[in-house]
Amino acid sequence: MNFRRFRLFKLIVIFICMYIVINLLYRSLLDSKTSSSMNENDNIPLILKSTENNVDQISYSLQPFYIRLPNFSDDEAKNWFYNSTYYKLNSKKCPQGLCEEKGILFDDVKEHLSVNVFLVKNGLYINDGCGYNYGTTAVKRTFVSANETTVIYDKAIIYTVPDGWAFQHFLDGIGPKLAHSKSYLQKYPDAKVIILQGMRFDRSVQEIWSMLGVEDSDRIIHYTPNMKVGAHLLINPCLTPGIHPRLWQDTRSMYWSISGISNRKNEVKRKNLIYIQRTSTNARNGARLILNEEPLIKILRDYCLKNSLNYIQYDHSKDTDHIRSRIELFYNAKIIIGVHSGALSNMNFAQSGTTVIEIMPYRQETSILPMTCSMFRPEDLKACAGYILFTQAQLLNHSYWILPNVVNAQGNMNLTIIYTVPDGWAFQHFLDGIGPKLAHSKSYLQEYPDAKVIILQGMRFDRSVQEIWSMLGVEDSERIIHYTPSMKVGARLLINPCLTPGIHPRLWQDARSMYWSISGISNRKNEVKRKNLIYIQRTSTNAVNGARLILNEEPLIKILRDYCLKNSLNYVQYDHSKDTDHIRTRIELFYNAKIIIGVHSGALSNMNFAQSGTTIIEIMPYRQESSVLPITCSMFRPDDIKACAGYILYTQAQLLNQSYWILPNVVNAKGNINLNISRVEKLFDKI
How many CB atoms lie within 10 A of CB 266? Predict the structure, then answer.
């Protein structure tokens, strides 16, 4: 009996031990799967193909992966990163809170893991965002007749990532999509390659395309937002993660392969220490310069001497060699060091295990943000491109070290242009405040591409305003400084266009021509017959102050629709809160307007994109008790004769040489309008 008890006890112990061993093996296997995407020798994933309604979808799923934390040389660097917005935003993704041990887990299927290529017969591309958020309906869009397109190609491949014409953003935007779609470039050597048109086309990017067999003059199409591209076979690799180790490492192997070094991985001992030098000449925005560079260079040279390395001081503005030479140079790097900049993206050509040291500049007043993210408020935890080089280094399996360093009060600014008009961060007041000043000073933006642009910091920074600045070549993260009253801004050259009239037809019409020009419609003034009647709708959702709503809107809309039907016009009901397109699309919409009608509001400022002669009808609300004033001027006493912004849209229309009609209408106690419909009918009988 005792023997049986002992035997039973022995079996229980064996079972427990086996359970522990199996559980440990299972967890080890799971961890290896999750982190295996960092390994360059991953097995090829299972590729799935499906066909539906003339659309072939080729897809596969990648493994979840970790982004390791940086290496730190001291507690100061460690504390900076642990207090950074990146860590605060992402540390919750660390399994069981073990950030230091495992890193940050990225496992969202759509954003990180699902790779897709769509082959669409008679596909149609209309300015869709090329990324993992690409709409599944848009990606399958087709055309039936040529009238739905502006151009039709036999075959085309879409790579319309933002700024893909620039070296840095070719690498971080187009590169990962090429990783799983480059075979189509060879399979269809006559296929057009669609990229976004930019302010330039970097030579290094042209050379990479050429090495892939894509010559610019023959195959590359520079897409503009007014184009509707059809293709009998449209190949779309956009619906793909922007970051994944497998994609980034496969792309790196592609760069090596087309440069002829794919089979030499172990032949050359890496001997280069490369210091990426940032100077007032090569820095596009003139900031983030190391003022005490000499002692840094001495440290680097001494280290090379001690460790038998080649010291290389790399300045991209002086590099006139073919991109192959640069790929070879960074392929042989053992250590890469430099200030946060696009030139550090050359790490994409370096082998796994390369030490990458990023000197990360930050401002004292926003010490938990990289300097390039200083347009954000620190308490707003949001993704910021200032950490992109850290991410790249980890995806490429490099040894990444961060060296945060505060910048001086000037941020090393060489040049500054002042546009500090009130509320210039808002769409309406960019147009009526900054626009007229840009009309006679925009040339300085191109003449001094490193100049900082100073605007007032606001409660937000309207997306449409950011897009206009971007089309002018001014990227927010690089050049725009959001001024606060406590700042004292110095510059070696301060350019100030402020002492300029706020209103003059020449300034306003020149500014309008500028908007047309940067949208690609400057030479089409007489080509398009204006056919749009645009009703700018004001609702309880899109009205910031919730007033000036038309309570009897239905009969107004019926009058407008009937008028359009009678006069062969397109009726467009515009709600700015639902407009998610790029500002280019809106400029095109209002450029083609024949009539614009709406209640007094900032959205009527879109008339700045309309041609001379456009009919503008402003429904002007006023209170019964102060009937000689627009409602927006009701803070004044009627007997005080003074300027009032309530008339600004009338002024704008006249400056723009438009046909302005005013339709005053009393409001109720809540500031809303019961429109006098008979007066509207009479007005439309006259125009």
Answer: 7
pTM higher than 0.70 for the full model?
A: no
- Is the CA virtual torsion 625, 629, 635, 639 positive or negative? negative
Which of 653, 656, 602, 620 is closest to 423 using CA atoms? 602
Task: Give, in order, the Cα–Cα distances in Å from 190 to each of 217, 218, 318, 558.
Answer: 12, 9, 35, 51
Could you give the CA distance from residue 357 to residue 399 in angstroms, rounded to a whole number? 8
Determine how many CB atoms are found less than 10 A away from the CB of residue 51: 9
> CA-CA distance, 99 to 76, in Å (whole number)?
18
Average pLDDT along the chain: 85
- Nearest one of 386, 417, 428 to 496, comparing CA atoms: 417
Angle (CA) 269-270-274 rounded to 5° is 160
Interval 185-215: pLDDT, tens: 999 999 999 999 988 899 999 999 999 999 8
Asked if 251 and 241 touch (Cβ cutoff 8 Å), the reply is no
- pLDDT higher at 397 or 492: 397
Full DSSP string of 121-133: EEEEE-S---STT
Q: Residue 673 gets which letter from DSSP?
A: B
Which of 454-465 are b and which e, b meaning 16 or more Cβ less than 10 Å from the residue's Cβ? bbbeeeebbebb
Q: Where are the beta strands (DSSP E) in 112-162?
A: 114-125, 151-158
Cα separation, 344 vs 342, in Å, equals 5
Helix (H, G, I), strand (E, B) or coil at 475: coil
Quick: pLDDT tens for 44-97.
577 788 888 889 999 999 999 999 999 998 888 888 888 888 888 888 888 887
Q: Residue 632: its pLDDT value, please?
A: 65
Question: Cα–Cα distance between 169 and 175 in angstroms, integer?
Answer: 9
What would the two tokens of residue 84 be?
Answer: 């950074």
Cα gap 651→644, rounded to integer Å: 11
134 with 111: CB under 8 angstroms?
Answer: no
Structure tokens at 268: 């050359």
Average pLDDT score over residue span 620-643 = 65
Closest alpha carbon to 622 in 652, 584, 665: 665
Distance (Å, whole) CA 250 – CA 115: 13
Tokens of 640: 């005080």
Q: What is the dihedral of CA 578, 582, 588, 590, to 10 degrees?
A: 40
CA gap 66, 55 in Å, rounded: 34
Q: In whole angstroms, what is the distance from residue 616 CA to residue 599 CA?
A: 11
CA distance 584 to 467: 8
Q: pLDDT digits over 302-326, tens only?
A: 999 999 999 999 999 899 999 999 9
Structure tokens at 469: 């600045």
Question: 234: closest CA among 162, 177, 154, 307?
Answer: 154
Residue 645 has which token pair? 């912004």
What are phi and psi for residue 266, nearest 5 degrees? -105, 5
DSSP 496: -
Tokens of 76: 């100061």
